[in-house]
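Reviewers of the previous submission asked for a worked example of the structure-prediction workflow described in the proposal, so we include one complete record here. The input consisted solely of the amino acid sequence. No template or homolog information was supplied to the procedure at any stage.
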Amino acid sequence: MGLLRLLINDPIAFVLLIIPLLYSVVIHEVAHGWVANRMGDPTAKLLGRLSLNPLKHLDPIGTLMLFLVGFGWAKPVPINMNNIADQRKGLIFVSSAGILANIFLAFGTLLIYRLLDLSSARTVALIASTIASINITLAALNLIPIPPLDGSKILMGFASRRTQYFLARIEPYGFFILIALLYLGWLDDFIGFIRGIIVMILQALLP
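From that input alone, the workflow returned the following structure tokens.
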């Protein structure tokens, strides 16, 4: 359900959703910085970007997109890979951190919902399903191996120098590539496919 439609149909649910949804993108970025710091790069920490204060992270356009289309972004946490001894491992672990954070948020939301048996509370059920759905979508979107999305950085960690160079060269055009894929309908298909895999994994893990 579009969040603007939710605002019209159920304003209470919309208000209750605002904070957890904003934190979905904030925690995604903090996870990148936290893992980078653990691996030897204190850049995000020194710039105060390991904070959970949304004002340090939110991007106006990314936040607007979150409420308009169901996925968005925060300001990227600055990472200096030169501070990480094993840069290939750093690319994989740091880039995976945000994706895993969104998957864990979706899992935690659904787990609490099931354990507390809140299915009879319509508003709570709507909030839980929306939070889980958006976090799954964020994870799926970021797994796309097109720069500057996290999936491309994970791919770089495994790829040859030639592929790394190619991905770095197309990064300035990544946004336009994504828009073209969205226009062709391929982006939705890919996100839907990855979402399906994530949902199957979560269903297998949930009690």
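DSSP finds ten helices and no strands in the chain. We consider this example representative of the routine output the project will generate in years two and three.
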